[in-house]
Amino acid sequence: RASGQREDRWMHLLSGPVDREQWLAQAGSDSPTGGGGNGLAERLSELERRVAELEARLHG
After folding, report:
1. Quick one: CA torsion of 34, 37, 38, 43, rounded to 10 degrees?
2. Which of 2, 18, 32, 50 is deepest in the core (most CB within 10 A)?
3. Which domain, by its residues, includes 38?
4. Is residue 1 part of a domain?
5. Does a structural domain hold residue 20?
6. How many domains does the chain have?
7. Is residue 31 included in any domain, yes or no?
């Protein structure tokens, strides 16, 4: 067993052979700090804004 390898060990059972390099590149692009994470960062900012607005309504 190797740390971080669980997905590689099980994905092939559901979807056939897995290209590990392609999967890692795609998984890395979903992170907020990754190159393709702008959409996620924007969603997070919007959620933070909405939470702040709701807190202001609740306490204000």
Report:
1. -140
2. 18
3. 6-59
4. no
5. yes
6. 1
7. yes
CA 15 to chain centre: 20
Which amino acid type is present at position 24?
L
- Please state, in angstroms and rounded to a whole number, the distance separating the CA atoms of residues 36 and 57: 34
pLDDT in tens, 40-53: 889 999 999 999 99
3 state SS of 5 = coil
List CB contacts of 13: < 8 A, sequence separation 6 or more: none
Quick check: is 42 in a domain? yes
Model confidence, pTM = 0.39
Query: 4 to each of 7, 8, 13, 55, how far by Cα in Å?
Result: 7, 8, 17, 38
Length of the chain: 60
